[in-house]
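ugh ok fine here u go
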Amino acid sequence: MMDKEDLALQDKNGNTALCIAAAAGSLEIVQLLIEANNSLLTIRGGANMAPPYMAALLGQSEIAWHLYPKSKNMMEKTDLECLFFSSINYGLYDLALQLLDTDPDSARALAKARTDRPKGKTALHILARRPSIFGSQSPGMWGRLINSFLPGVKFPFQRKLNQADVALQLVQRLWEEILKDEHENVMNLINYPSNLLFDATELGNYEFLAALMSSYPELVWETDEKKSYYNPCRSFASSC
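structure:
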């Protein structure tokens, strides 16, 4: 076995053996390397990436899950944000949830954090545009929600909101953190860089909308400066 010092050597791209193993998805090798030299967790790889972020960026969910608890105390704010958005971008929603449970301050910061690009989107803006991950095929859940506000409007009740769905749990957790803020700040977050309610509506992301509106029904009457008055039935006229 190589010496601890040798394991910390970096290649021309700045990657240690741990970084390479994490990127390759070799959990057994990752475990052996950490057992031999735990300080490898503190050494950044190419592009100054922390090992858990590198694993998440390359879609190695099992490795990212394994590395994060061991290195979370060594990660800076920017590391957490990079890991958080990479987890969402690559569908590692369980890891994103775990990051929100780091501590209350970090949870609030991550819920409000914005990507550098494109256009400074929050996690909710990204998830609003991904109806497929929630299985939104019909406005059934949405219909039940709207009927509680507008009795007499008929919607097909074909689906139930699956509380066990990890992506939906992530939406609810993010929304819970955002609603701790003042109403004006909540609206500002929703509306920039685009109105995430309208994004979700246009793409048929009904489960996402229901998750938000069930705890904040005032959103039903939210307007968009670039669009006409928001009437939820108008978007689902074919289903009413």
